[in-house]
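Please fill in the sequence for the structure shown.

STRUCTURE ENCODING:
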């Protein structure tokens, strides 16, 4: 299958768009001028149900929707386009709006970048003790863009927002020196956008260095969903699978952290075959997704998705809360509601599917999981715990926040039962100068 990307300059050639309303086309144009927009022929022809526009979840996941911008922003950009103000001015307006959309959720760029001998290693991030994130410089884009993605500043070409790296030697050195690191997680964008030869350079360097503490290599990717031909018919697909076998042969665990948001992404022959080929190499596929309004905000959708994943041999891993950036107002679901959906999902599936953890927020202190609504002596509270912590000692300790039906993110939560602070607050404050980068195809 030949890969044909569609972006703002050529989306009008998508045949199926000829039958959708002018309002929908206008929204693509206006919102697509601010937030990144990219799709491709596989998504258009296989994942979207064109008889179900505008409600189709895969359409909303990949095509800009009017409500993704607040009305002021939408009107501003729409009239600029209508008045033919020219490219430079459109760009200026777009950048101004983007900066109002919190492009660095939870702080970014400078923070949590590790260093060796005083030299910062950009393109790397080390927040949780066991796991180093690596952003290969050629992997900072994707086969198609999700409309909710918090990595959007990387895609819209504000150059200095990118964190990338050509520094594979530094990565190897760092992992060698840090015996506590067992995992290297390749992330992006999508590292599997890279040619196999490039990915191989990074992975081979890690394997050749023969680092005993390195046990797990993970690759975060949306390719199975957006371009399964990466594992089937792309010219270097076979090389990629051989590389996977090699990792396994070197005695390392290889985990493909696959990003699926909806069961519609797990239906095609292509994705089914791609999963089979990957599993044959000895790699494991773990799946993760944010819980998103308009896309997968029901236990039925989640249940169907998880059961299908298990049928294909994948292991459910994370349900995330959508981050506070970009079009969050469009996608976000209050924490309490997200937990209700999680609970209903969990109750409706077999133990085999219950490897799913969540709903979890990747925020400043760590990955905070909403355990549920507790009723303690007549007072309602949110029971929480960290699945990952900036300080490993914080992990797995239950703590409580005041019940709040509207809260959509960690920073809106207050300690319950008259406490002034969460147990980690003081220490966190001291550590705030090492804030987190955002990463992973979550
Ligand atoms: C999610 C995440 C990881 C991986 O965490 P696991 O629980 O091991 O999957 C690593 N680093 C950062 C910054 C993360 O957000
Ligand atoms: S969520 Fe993943 S696949 Fe989607 S645009 Fe973001 S990085 Fe790319």
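FILLED IN BY: designer on duty
SEQUENCE:
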């Amino acid at each position: 299958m030949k890969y044909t990307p569609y972006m703002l300059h050529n989306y009008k050639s998508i045949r199926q768009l000829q039958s959708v309303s002018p309002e929908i086309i206008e929204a693509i144009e206006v919102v697509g001028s601010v937030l990144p927009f990219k799709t491709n022929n596989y998504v258009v022809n296989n994942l979207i149900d064109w008889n179900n526009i505008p409600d189709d979840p895969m359409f909303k996941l990949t095509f800009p929707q009017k409500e993704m911008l607040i009305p002021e922003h939408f009107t501003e950009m729409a009239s600029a386009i209508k008045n033919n103000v020219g490219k430079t001015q459109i760009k200026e307006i777009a950048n101004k709006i983007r900066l109002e959309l919190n492009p660095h959720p939870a702080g970014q760029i400078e923070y949590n970048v590790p260093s060796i001998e005083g030299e910062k290693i950009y393109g790397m991030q080390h927040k949780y003790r066991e796991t180093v994130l690596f952003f290969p410089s050629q992997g900072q884009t994707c086969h198609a863009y999700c409309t909710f993605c918090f990595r959007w500043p990387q895609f819209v070409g504000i150059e200095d927002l990118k964190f990338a790296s050509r520094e594979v030697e530094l990565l190897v050195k760092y992992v060698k020196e840090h015996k506590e690191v067992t995992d290297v997680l390749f992330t992006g964008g999508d590292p599997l956008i890279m040619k196999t030869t490039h990915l191989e350079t990074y992975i081979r360097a890690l394997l050749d260095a023969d680092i005993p503490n390195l046990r797990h290599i993970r690759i975060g990717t949306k390719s199975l969903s957006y371009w399964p031909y990466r594992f089937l018919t792309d010219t270097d697909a076979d090389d990629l699978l051989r590389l996977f076998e090699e990792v396994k042969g070197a005695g390392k665990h290889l985990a493909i952290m696959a990003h699926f948001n909806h069961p519609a992404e797990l239906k095609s022959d292509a994705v089914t075959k791609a999963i089979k080929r990957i599993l044959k190499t000895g790699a494991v596929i773990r799946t993760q997704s944010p819980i998103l309004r308009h896309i997968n905000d029901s236990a039925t959708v989640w249940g169907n998705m998880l059961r299908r994943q298990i049928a294909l041999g994948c292991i459910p891993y994370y349900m995330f809360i959508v981050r506070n950036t970009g079009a969050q107002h469009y996608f976000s679901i209050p924490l309490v509601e997200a937990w209700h959906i999680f609970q209903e999902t969990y109750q409706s599936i077999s133990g085999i599917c219950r490897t799913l953890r969540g709903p979890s927020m990747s925020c400043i202190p760590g990955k905070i999981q909403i355990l549920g609504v507790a009723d303690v002596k007549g007072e309602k509270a949110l029971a929480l715990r960290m699945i990952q912590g900036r300080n490993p000692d914080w992990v797995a300790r239950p703590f409580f926040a005041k019940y709040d039906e509207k809260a959509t993110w960690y920073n809106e939560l207050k300690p319950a039962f008259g406490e002034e602070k969460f147990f980690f607050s003081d220490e966190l404050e001291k550590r705030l100068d090492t804030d987190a980068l955002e990463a992973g195809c979550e």
